[in-house]
């Protein structure tokens, strides 16, 4: 066990704000009575600033609102504007980078407004639109608003656009900044009604934002923040996972029941295994409160995510093991201790290979400070950082915006569909590297979405590209769908892509590992994971989505249902594109041919030494243990996801014939080969 002395002295003390607030949104219908919710709204730190906020927003075309997490920005400001009529009877859009936040916040606001979700207050996320003609407060993911702007570049239906969680700087948020700013300018020029822009954030580089939004005024909200004791380790930790467990049990031995703990780790598998270890270790402990251990990450089904909001039963202690999702966008009650690994899983892009890679990297100072803040929302708290003070000082100040570290093909395609042909000169707040834009343009040319105009370097959208932009998917997936009709397997490809777009359907029960594996074995295919997903989908359909079948086969029925819904929507887009629905029946080879034709950039082959190397950049990759092909050594595969943990893993892959790849993109492989030689 670690000694308390291993941690250095507190780093900073923060101002004590004596307002007490004990409201919990999950206390059942009685506690959620309208009066009680109204009182809770009035007790929020933002309430006293209501009139000032409304009058400032009325005065200026754009405004920036800064306030600590939990101060009431997301739930209250839209309501204030609505109540004051600032929206002029049009819709107020509130964008969120994460779908969980869009759903949970809109539900909360509907509750506060005493209405059912989908009427006055609604939400719209990919594959789910819960709004109606009467919706005035529309919570949506930034990706959804971006898609709407393709059809309506001046965003005519909206009078106010609130860009929330701006500090997250996801690709979509960054592109939206430019699109919304252009819409505001265009409406001004053409004499249409003003479009108000409000940018909200917990922390951010205020001057940079204000400058970009035409010197918009900045409104600071006072947050509720109790003092937090910050501890650093004395020595750097080689294993943050191990360190987090030791720290957790050290706190657990001493702290009274009800003092809940939030641990920041990096991803799904790591979190699930930590949750299991914690439960196992806690079982043998005596004279300590009982633990309620809960995972929290984006891919978790919403019903499971919601559990973290529940009040901890008396005599228990809640431990939430989360990704950076718990940094700002979600409010968890009762947290007194934060354990911060100082790590985060982020997308990293290699413009040479054109591949995005999920990789565990050091968090930024801004993220670490946000995490610390989560310990002091309701009472004084403690934050244990599993890194030294000097490691903290060496962290970068802000997170690098996603747009500067991801594959831009999807965004560039959307911008082209928006009519912005010169992407290199688009008004980005922080410009992506020209190499990344050029790599994306090149990828889209290879995919056939863009083409060079005769005798010029100007790129324009092809009819295929236009069709591709209609799908809310990575261009490679859209391409596969469009190819599928030529390969006579559109129905099958839709099922596979819907399954890939939904959350994982395979359930793994820790004390029934063997039974799980045996059940899943039935669906496995020597052709790979995509065909396995298809087998599961087909089996599910053949029993008409029977729930007990799902249960018996360790298949998550909610996620299966979602996959079915997603499929329906993708099929509707195909219908609108006048595509013919074809099926290959049992001949699954054509499916893999089709996948190869769309994902030829994600191919790897087995080398003589027995390693897999990507076909173009010769990067070493391995088959993920969760893959149906883990024990196999196929000569050539295409993969639809790459993750980096201890190694670079291909997850979800299919066996293909290298000839299919060459046939699909002869010029691509020829060019890559030449450049590899030179
Ligand atoms: O956006 P910001 O972080 O400033 O705060 P918010 O999301 O508007 O949340 C304000 C308060 O509403 C939180 O402190 C919670 O007490 C409550 N809330 C809740 O109970 N359940 C939710 N789903 C969202 C907010
Ligand atoms: Mg918020």
Automatic annotation (TrEMBL):
PROSITE patterns: DEAH_ATP_HELICASE (PS00690), HELICASE_ATP_BIND_1 (PS51192), HELICASE_CTER (PS51194)
EC class of the enzyme, as a word: hydrolase
Residues of the Helicase C-terminal domain: 247-419
GO molecular function: ATP binding; double-stranded RNA binding; hydrolase activity; RNA helicase activity
Database matches in Pfam families: DEAD, HA2_C, Helicase_C, OB_NTP_bind, WHD_HA2
Record-linked InterPro entries: DEAD-box_helicase_OB_fold (IPR011709), DEAD/DEAH_box_helicase_dom (IPR011545), DNA/RNA_helicase_DEAH_CS (IPR002464), HA2_WH (IPR048333), Helicase-assoc_dom (IPR007502), Helicase_ATP-bd (IPR014001), Helicase_C-like (IPR001650), P-loop_NTPase (IPR027417)
Residue ranges of the region described as Disordered: 1-32
The protein's Enzyme Commission number: 3.6.4.13
Biological-process GO terms, alphabetical: positive regulation of transcription by RNA polymerase I
GO cellular component, one term: nucleolus
Annotated keywords: ATP-binding, Helicase, Hydrolase, Nucleotide-binding
Protein name: RNA helicase
